[in-house]
Structure formats: structure tokens, C-alpha cells
Specification:
about 180 residues, alpha+beta, 9-stranded mixed sheet, about 25% helix, Aminopeptidase
Length: about 180
């Protein structure tokens, strides 16, 4: 069954970070199969500064085994950098995750630095990764997305591979192997 994403944009407003040139993007997955969980809406928008505390909580949850969590201070510093893009993931009125993108200086690539979804096993991660691809291409005008993932994070590796990402290298970080993945979008 082919899945189609539709998205809608409205101008974002935030007192904490200049978002005047950024859109709030809502993606709705549409499918003929009414029994699919995918009929529930996921909403992606620019993160607000006051959500950074919640983001720290998410990092200290189940995701802690697969990421190197930031302190609140580190998130606050990163949040102010113009090349760093924080997006929040919502399902209905529940803040269920976030991701961080970093615009590379080559003006064509985006580092997909982090994704955390607090409801694993529901298929949201794969949906969000596909949304990230669209955001990088359509909103950020970039043609390549790259990321690193711990070799032991088999669930995330499976999602990235299912979404068309391919490995292009590896390196060691604090005694653990990180695999590098990339995709043209």
C-alpha cells in the first residue's frame, strides 16, 4: 500500500527564537486502510524555548541508552544557534518527541542530530523520519541528510534503512561504534 503525506503550513510565532522565516508544518498520513494506526495525526512544529525542560526529560527516559543526553544549559545554547533547528512532535495534544537538525556549512547537507519519540513501537519513528526528509528538502532546501547512530541501536538502524538511508562510514565515541548514514532527499 502506498502512503501519501500531505502537509499544511502556517507562520510560526515565538518570542524566544526568531522563527519569522520558518513554517509550522503539519503532516497527515493518508491511507485507505482505516485500521492502521497511521490515521492518527502527527503534528510537527518549531520547538518553543519553554519546551526544552520537557525535551531533557524525554532524553532521560528510555532514549538514554541510545543517545548522549544534553543538559538543559546545553539545549539552551544549541537552541539559540541559527544553524540548529529544533522541532517538536505532537500527537493530538501530547508532546511525544522532538528532533534536532543542524544545517551544514556546505549549504546542501543537514545533520539529523537527534530524534527522540517517547512512544516506541508505534511506528511514529518511521513516520517522523519520512517527515524529516520532506522538511530538509522542502523547508530547508537541502538535498542530503546524514546522521550517526550507535551500532547497538538496532531498532533505529532498521528504521533508517527502511526509510532509504545507507551507511557511509563509522567511528568510535566513548568506546562505542557509531555508524554514519546518509540519504539524498
Amino acid at each position: 500500500m502506498k502512503t501519501r503525506w500531505s502537509f499544511f503550513t502556517d507562520q510560526a510565532v515565538s518570542d524566544d527564537k526568531d522563527t519569522s522565516n520558518k513554517d509550522v508544518t503539519e503532516f497527515r498520513e493518508t491511507s485507505g486502510d482505516q485500521a492502521m494506526l497511521s490515521n492518527q495525526e502527527l503534528f510537527i512544529r518549531d520547538t518553543k524555548r519553554e519546551e526544552l525542560g520537557r525535551i531533557c526529560e524525554m532524553e532521560r527516559g528510555e532514549a538514554r541508552s541510545f543517545i548522549t543526553p544534553y543538559s538543559l544549559d546545553r539545549h539552551q545554547v544549541e537552541f539559540t544557534k541559527p544553524e540548529v533547528v529544533y522541532k517538536s512532535i505532537w500527537r493530538g495534544d501530547q508532546h511525544i518527541g522532538f528532533f534536532i537538525l543542524v544545517l551544514d556549512s556546505d549549504a546542501r547537507s543537514v545533520e539529523f542530530r537527534r530524534i527522540v519519540v517517547t512512544e516506541p513501537g508505534c511506528g511514529y519513528g518511521k513516520k517522523v523520519v519520512r517527515m524529516v526528509d520532506e522538511i530538509c528538502r522542502d523547508e530547508l532546501s537541502r538535498g542530503r541528510v546524514w546522521l550517526d547512530v550507535f551500532e547497538t541501536n538496532k531498532r533505529a538502524r532498521h528504521v533508517y534503512e527502511q526509510c532509504g538511508y545507507c551507511t557511509f562510514g563509522s567511528f568510535e565515541h566513548e568506546g562505542k561504534t557509531l555508524l554514519l548514514y546518509e540519504k539524498a532527499v
